[in-house]
């Protein structure tokens, strides 16, 4: 069993429903959704291009998947999670856009937003006592030889290279897209998510996701609003 702290809007939020239809799975219910052909992409191509993010569900990673540390329990984790959400106030990312991270497409902030960076760092720190150390295999899977010095240090300290000053909020929409099809995919994603882009995104809550066994789909175990003053 692995746990993760992710941002996702509430289950009935229009963005959640639109993203579930795009990815072909609802992380709240676990239901699969038939993916239809879209413009230049046949249905089977869309299924393939969304395979990677489909398993994780629509989300932005805040604290990456982890196994529980020795002596910790799910009950203790949930208790800390509820207390944390009760202590933090909701806030807005001023604007989100469809962006490209390497060969992947995602919804990302139009600009770096310091309150978001601070919130992500607070989540990483608050739940670190619950994280079991990475195995050598886990570290190797991250290909530390390809990481910067700062990213390698974060991997060893926090279990994930893209935290603190390396954190980049993104809600993944695709797996890798071939360069020859990237502009077509950009236009498709921009059209599909036009109702949500160039507008604020409310960070209204935090979700606790679970992966029952390695390689299984991630599902929402709990979603808590941020209710702090």
Describe this structure in words.
The chain is of the alpha+beta class and 229 residues long. The chain has one domain: Alpha-Beta Complex (Cyclic Phosphodiesterase, Chain: A). Helices cover 35% and strands 21% of the residues. A hairpin with a 2-residue loop joins strand 4 and strand 5 (104-109). It starts with a strand and ends with a strand. The mean pLDDT is 96.
Comma- or semicolon-separated keywords:
229 residues, alpha+beta, Cyclic Phosphodiesterase, Chain: A, four-stranded antiparallel beta sheet, three-stranded antiparallel beta sheet, 35% helix, 21% strand, globular
Largest sheet: 4 strands, antiparallel
Indicate the CATH topology.
Answer: Cyclic Phosphodiesterase, Chain: A
What level of helicity do the residues show? 25-40%
In oligomeric terms, what are we looking at?
single chain
Terminal Cα span: 33 Å
Q: What is the domain tally?
A: 1
SSE layout and pairings?
Layout: E1 2-7, H1 14-23, H2 43-49, H3 51-56, E2 60-66, H4 74-87, E3 91-93, E4 96-101, E5 104-109, H5 114-126, H6 136-141, H7 149-158, E6 171-172, H8 179-192, E7 201-203, E8 205-211, E9 218-225
Antiparallel strand pairs: 1-2, 1-8, 3-7, 4-5, 5-6, 8-9
């Amino acid at each position: 069993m692995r746990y993760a702290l992710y941002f996702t809007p509430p289950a009935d939020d229009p963005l959640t429903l639109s993203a579930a239809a795009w990815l072909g799975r609802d992380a709240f219910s676990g239901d699969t959704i038939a993916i239809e052909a879209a413009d230049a992409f046949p249905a089977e191509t869309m299924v393939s291009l969304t395979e990677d993010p489909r398993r994780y569900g629509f989300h932005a990673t805040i604290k990456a998947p982890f196994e529980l540390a020795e002596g910790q329990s799910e009950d203790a984790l949930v208790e800390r999670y509820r207390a944390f959400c009760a202590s933090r106030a909701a806030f807005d990312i001023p604007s989100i856009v469809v962006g490209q991270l390497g060969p992947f497409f995602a919804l990302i902030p139009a600009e770096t937003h310091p309150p978001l960076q601070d919130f992500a760092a607070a989540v990483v720190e608050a739940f670190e006592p619950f994280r079991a150390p990475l195995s050598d295999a886990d570290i190797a899977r991250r290909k530390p030889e390809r990481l910067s010095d700062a990213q390698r240090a974060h991997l060893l300290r926090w279990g994930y290279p893209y935290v603190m000053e390396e954190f980049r909020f993104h809600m993944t929409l695709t797996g890798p897209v071939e360069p020859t099809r990237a502009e077509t995919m950009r236009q498709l994603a921009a059209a599909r998510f036009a109702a949500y882009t160039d507008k604020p995104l409310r960070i209204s809550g935090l979700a606790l996701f679970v992966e029952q066994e390695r390689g299984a789909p991630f599902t929402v175990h709990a979603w808590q609003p941020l209710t702090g003053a």
